[in-house]
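call fold(seq) -> tokens
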Amino acid sequence: AKLITKNFCDKCNAVIAPTLKTKEVLEEYEIKPPISVIPTGIKIDHFNPACYTIEQRNELRKEYGISPEAPVLAYVGRVAKEKSLDVVIRQLPELFRRLPNAKFVAVGDGPARSGLEDLVSDLGIQDKVIFTGLVPYSKIGLYYQIGDAFISASTTETQGLTYIEAMAAGLPVIAKKDESILDVVNDGVNGAIFVNDEEVPEIVARILTDNEYRKQLSENALQTAQRFSS
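ret:
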């Protein structure tokens, strides 16, 4: 992969990387052309909460057996090993101990789903965890609205577009510390950063229960998303 990447990029006059993390990886490959960092833009209006009604949100929740007032932690994206969803799931029993009415919704599908469903069953939390399966992209904007906060423990992102989509949807983003999101997720401003997995329940519980804090994070998240508008 390194050789193919270098051979391809060396034939170009310039190379664009979506993040500094990606640029540094390409520099390690000793690519010759100049590399500029330009984030991938997204159509943020597709995710704006103002585009969806409370009724639409509650109707979608009802489809999955979630009450309108239940606090919901959401993940949107490919359900694959490199996304480290197991890291999040292993912390859910403690979160549910703190918030018995909370739910975790994973929107998307992938090769790791079956194994993760087995893990959920082993942990005895299958009544509180929902895998929606594949959702058409045209409906993804609404599906973000099912949650009150977004979480990902992935450290393999090149940019983390779902983090930006979540912010455009007004969701505070809880993420594992990684270079790819250092200029996106600002701890205590538009979301929260965790280093140790065991920090997750406390961080999530605070965001889901402190309405004023969550509202402030949400407003800041919407502002952050504007920087990535296509």
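The two ends are 29 Å apart (CA to CA).
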